[in-house]
Amino acid sequence: MDYIGYLVILALIIIVLSLFFSFVPVKLWISAAAANVKIRLGTLVGMRLRRVPPAKIVDPLIKATKAGIELPINKLEAHFLAGGNVDRVVNALIAAQRANIPLGFERAAAIDLAGRNVLEAVQMSVNPKVIETPPIAAIAKNGIELRAKARVTVRANIDRLVGGAGEQTIIARVGEGIVTTIGSSAAHKDVLENPDRISKTVLEKGLDSGTAFEILSIDIADIDVGRNVGAQLQTDQAEADKRIAQAKAEERRAMAVAREQEMQAAVQEMRAKVVEAEAEVPMAMAEALRSGKLGVMDYYNLKNINSDTDMRESIAKGAEKQ
User: How confident is the model at residue 319 (pLDDT cuts 50, 70, 90)?
Assistant: First the structure.
């Protein structure tokens, strides 16, 4: 029984020690002490209680201490609780120190919390980055289209990383400068002969103001000749003018046809009235004979006059035919 009791006690001791060492990072505390980083066990236990992985704080702190950078552990823990990347911030501080770039923890933490890669920014300050723009089309004054592609060499500006515009703004501004330079050229040949005009114009505008970068150089990588937009526009304008002229001519023709049809209708109406009036003449003559207003001799004289008139008209038509 005594042997079994000892085994039970030993098992309980092992369980208690296992729980203790799993909750209290003694191994991490020993590593910190070996690196001359003074951290109390209570501090590590407090990190556990605050749901902060101690390794994510202690390992970067050891790294910073070995690099000769003094960092308060409370600031590292606060940065982690704010959602920052402690290890990346410490790496950036070490890289900045090696490159003699002035960068404090507060600024590095602010850059990291702003969503920018502070380590990449420090590396870009040492080793500038080349941004290649897509082909940008612009039209010279003579109507020839040019497509230019530029390579922009930029260096990160640590002071403007928080609140500064990114790469897309640089690309957009460079594209605007290319379009302005080509568009103000009298002929596309001027740009092809001196492509450095684009670089000079773009650099003179200070396109890096308000951005997180500093433009070091702008090089025109390629220029291609595109369409003759001016000729195409003139052709389209001529075709449009022709269609307008055709439409106006069709409108005039339709109006002339309508007027002719109105005149024909008016003539037919007049003829109908004449026929109607001629149809009433015999009736009027008959009424005049009945009422005595027209005598028989008067009627025959009228007939003779009509016959004589018809004869004269027949003779005149025959003479005209001859």
Answer: low
